[in-house]
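User: I need a structural model of F-box protein from Datura stramonium for a docking pre-check later this week. Nothing fancy, just the predicted C-alpha cells so I can convert them on my end. Input:
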Amino acid sequence: MSSCSISTTTTAEDGGRTAITAVHPDIIQTLILTKLDGPTLISAGFASSQLQNLCSDENLWRKICNSSWPSTSDPIIQKAVSTFPSGHRSFFSDSFPSINEQKSGTGNHSNNPFPSPELISAVDIHFEDELLYSKVLTTETKSGWFMSSPFRIELLGHKEIVPTPVKFDGDDENCKSNLQEKMKLSWILIDPAKNRAVNISSLNPVSVRRHWLTEELKIRYSTVMGSGDGEGLVQCGIVVTCEGSYSAGRDAVVAIRRGMLLFRQGDVLGSLVEFDKAIQLDPRQKAYLWQRGLSLYYLDRYEEGAEQFRLDVAQNPNDTEESIWCFLCEAQLYGVDEARKRYLEVGRDPRPVMREAYNMFKDGGDPEKLVAAFSSGQPNEYFYASLYAGLYYESQNEPDAAKVHLIAACQSPYGSRSDDYMAALAKVHCKCRNWNLN
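Assistant: Understood. Predicted C-alpha cells for F-box protein:
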C-alpha cells in the first residue's frame, strides 16, 4: 500500500492479489470507504496519499457525522461546521468521544473572558443503537447568568417531558443495569466563533440511581477537562431523568399524568380529581404536587392552593415559581400587603427571568420593565416575563393589564409552540378568564 500510483497491478510477490491503488477511485469511495466508521476512515487515510485524498471527501465525513450524531443534520450545526478548517472532518476530530485538551499559544487578555457570543449544543441519546432523543440548542454567553458558576444548560423547557418507546422490564437492578450498559449520550458543545467543538459527555453513564420518592431514575454522565488556561479543571455533569414505573406508586404516577393531560386540555376540575386520586394512592406524592396547586388556583380554592405550594417549597426550597404561586393564592385571600409579609424565601433560580420575577413579586416592581428587559432575549424568557407580568397585574386587581400580557405570552413563539406545562397554563388562564386569544 505504499505506492500512490493507480496503475499498480498484481505481482507474484503479492500472491496474485490486486493492490488497493489499482482499484478505480470511484469504487473505493462509493463501495469501500462508505462502509467505514470515523476512526477507521482516519486510519485508512494514512495508508497512501491517494487514500488520504479520497478519505478527506466532505460528503463522506458529513454522512459519518450525521450517522454518529443525528443532531448534526440540523441546519444550525451545518452552518457552524461549514466554517471549520476541514469541515466535517475537523468537526469529527474535535467531537469524537475522547477529549483532547487544546492548549493555546497565547493567553486571553480581552476584557471579555468569553469572546464568543454563543455556544451551540448538539445532543443525542441512544438506547441499544435506537435514537431516543435529539436536539440542538443555542446558548448566549454575554450575560452574567452565563458567567456565573456553575454554568447550567436546561435542555428541555421547564417541566417539559419527552416520551420514549423504551420499556424497562424486570426487577429494578436489571433495569438500572440495562441503562448503565445500553444508554449512550453525546453532548457536543460547539464554539462557532473559534470553529471548535468538544464532546463533554462520558458517553456511558457514571451512575444510575432511583429517587426514593418520585421513583424517577437519574442517569448521570460526567467528564473532567482542563479549564483552558492551565490553572485548573472543569467538571461537566449531565443528568437524564427517566420516569419510574416499578413500584406500588406506579398507579399514582399514572393518575398524575392523566391530571396533567386534562389540565392541558382545559379541564381544570378533572385534573384536580386525578391529582387527588394520586394522593389517595400514594400519600407521599402530595408534598410534590405543584400541578395540583395550579389547578386549585384556577378553581378559586386559594387556601388549599397556598397550602399545596408551601408543602412544595418545604421539600424544594429553591423553587422560585412555587413561591410566586403561593403569593398569588394568598394575595387573593389576604391582599397584596399581607401576602408579601408571608412571602416564601427561596434559593437563587438559575434563570435570570425568574430571578427578576421573584424579586418583583417579593418587593414590588414594574411588570413593564420585566417584559422590556427580556423582549429581545430567548423565546422562553420573553414568554415567562409576559406570563408573570400578567399574573402580577392580576394580583394587583388590574385585569385589563393582566389580559394584555397573558395573551402576549400565549401568542409568543414559545407560548404557542412549546410543550412546556406553563405554556399550557397561560392558555388555561385565558380560558378561565373568558379572554379570546384570537
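Before docking, keep this in mind: The first helix runs from residue 25 to 32.
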